[in-house]
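step: validate -> pass
step: tokenize input -> pass
step: predict -> running
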Amino acid sequence: MNYSYESNIRPIDFWKLSMYRTYHSLVGVCNLIFGAAMIGLTVRFWDTANDVVQAVLFLACLLIPVIQPLGVYLKAKVQVSLIPQGAELSFAEDGIHVSLSGKRELIRWHRVRQVVKQAGMVIVFTDRSHGYMLTNRVLGKEKEEFYQYVKAHISTSGR
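step: predict -> pass
step: emit ->
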């Protein structure tokens, strides 16, 4: 079997991944506790606070649900602008064929570290921090079949 896709990453894809990882970690739990605490403090002290304190409380309530996701999205826009777009990825029996701007590379299966399903995408890691992100939009109905295909090739390559 052979799978071919064009990797076209959008800022929203990085945003989803970042938010997923944040809220599935201890940081996310702390964010939720902080957000709930700020809402509780705002409700408790709103009537007795002066205008400056009310403004600070209001902004603190917006920090987790509005300001943080906006900051993550702006960071995602920068990330997308730094990575090359339009890489053609072909997953075959001998490995991953990557084609970008006329250049070609073959990544053998034994060099692939892991494959992960996360936040509406499949990520094929070639090392601890680098990999190829294939979104549900790109994979379509082949997502599960593709995931199992890559997983099988990684496990049979000696990992």
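step: describe -> The beta strands are 3-7, 87-92, 95-100, 103-107, 114-118, 121-125, 131-135.
step: cleanup -> pass
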